[in-house]
Design goal:
single chain; alpha/beta; 49% helix
């Protein structure tokens, strides 16, 4: 397989989404994945979103991550104009606690799929993007495998220590 370094586009519906997306950006940096970040709106700049997504493959992108709250149509608009994988990050930004954004992201019509992570699940969006790119990048795939092994070791260490931790907590409550 060809080992080319594809970029990830991180598209925010608003600059208010940036605090949620910092985890995504940190994860992309951790895996040495180049990215660009932009602000586009499905409702206020639909033409810009359409042009960006329809030209993204030619510009070296391999995955697009779109974060938006409320109606959260951004990922769907982007997906309508590209064949690249699109990952939605529903952002908790309204009185519905992000449920509106989640439902808007997952209820896509046939032929326009959008992968969707949890509400405010920016870190997982970056990991999913890394896994998609890792299909054609063995170095990235190995880094992801190491991260999974590290998580396993961390949980096993916590499991080994939990009985002593509980005994200490119970003895302090006497």
């Amino acid at each position: 397989m060809e080992n080319t370094k594809k970029k990830v586009a991180v598209i925010l519906g608003s600059d208010s989404d940036l605090p949620v997306m910092l985890g995504c950006l940190k994860t992309l940096v951790k895996y040495d994945i180049p990215y660009e970040i932009h602000i586009m709106s499905a409702h206020r700049t639909p033409e810009a979103a359409a042009v960006f997504s329809s030209t993204a493959r030619a510009k070296g992108f391999g995955v697009i991550i779109a974060a938006a709250g409320k109606a959260a149509h951004l990922a769907g608009v982007i997906a309508a104009h590209t064949t690249l994988p699109v990952i939605a990050v529903p952002v908790k930004s309204s009185t519905l606690d992000g449920l509106d954004a989640l439902l808007s992201s997952v209820q896509m019509p046939k032929g326009v799929p959008v992968a969707t992570v949890a509400i405010d699940g920016a870190d997982n969006a970056a990991i999913l993007a890394a896994q998609i790119l890792g299909v054609n990048d063995e170095t990235l795939a190995e880094a992801l495998a190491k991260s999974k092994a590290d998580m396993e070791q961390e949980i096993m260490a916590k499991d080994a220590a939990i009985a002593d931790k509980v005994a200490d907590m119970l003895s302090q409550q006497k």
